[in-house]
Amino acid sequence: MNPSTKSILTISHLYGSGGSLIARDLGRRLHWTVGDKEIVHQIASQQQMPEEYVDTKDERVDSFVERMVGFLGIGGFEASYKILPPLELKDIQLVRMTRTIIEDVAKEGQAIIVGRGG
Question: Which of 38, 56, 109, 110 fits as disulfide partner to 32, beta carbons 3.0 to 4.6 Å?
Fold first, then answer.
């Protein structure tokens, strides 16, 4: 393959299906970069948050009611009592950061993105 060619492969998988292992093996064989938990690590580092928090947030999608409450500015339990959660990473913020990281990896080319809407 021409070194200047930029190719991106995305692998979507279900939890426990081995998609990450397949991506790592394929990346090793092709000598390509693999973006998987590295994305979570990078976001956690940038936001100075534990990786476990970002990983949990990454795997969870707010319910329709939670999104509507946020959209309408009503706030939930925390807003009612003016108690802020100890860590806050909004879904839109997580999506934007993930997108930026994936786009940066894509610019380099020859990469495999695992999940995350790659």
Answer: 110
